[in-house]
Each structure stands twice: as C-alpha cells, then as structure tokens.
Amino acid sequence: xxxxxxxxxxxxxxxxxxxxxxxxxxxxxxxxxxxxxxxxxxxxxxxxxxxxxxxxxxxxxxxxxxxxxxxxxxxxxxxxxxxxxxxxxxxxxxxxx
Length: 97
Ligand SMILES: [Zn+2]
Known about the structure:
- Helix content is 47%, strand content 23%.
- It is of the alpha+beta class.
- It folds into 2 domains: 36 residues; 59 residues, no CATH class.
- A 4-stranded antiparallel β-sheet has the order 1-2-3-4, with helices on one face.
- The structure holds zinc ion.
C-alpha cells in the first residue's frame, strides 16, 4: 500500500472515532435528560404543561385516561395506552405516581 493511502485510512479512522465520541456524548445527554422523568414523583415542566393544559399523556401522546380516586381537587389518572400514572390538580400541579 502506498503511504498516501495509509494516511487516508488513518485520517478516516480518526474521523470515525471522533464521530463515535460525539454520538456517545449525545446518547449520554439524552439518557440523562430522560431519566428524571421516569422517577416517581418527578415530572418535567414541559410534561406538566402537556398533561395539564392539553390533557395529553407526555409519555405516549394518548388523550384517553382512566380516572381514579379523587380527593378534593386532586385526581389520579392513568393513561389508557401506556399505563403511566399521574396525580394531578389542574391547572397547578402534576406528579407521577
Ligand atoms: Zn401514555
């Protein structure tokens, strides 16, 4: 193999490695952003808005919920499609249960 060709292969491999590192970083950030929303009680502001203002499940986009026990203004709802459960008090409060 010519030296020129070897250099081209080296450069290409270096570029691939750099791209892989970027992809891994993107995956890491995406996972870190998603995690808090999965935990009990934790809901992001955006998810809260989607849920309370538009009555849309922030996890799957469904608009149908089973309505569970009610206590005063508080209400337990469960998404028919994905099963995500929320404790809501529209329009102020929402958390995962
Ligand atoms: Zn859902």
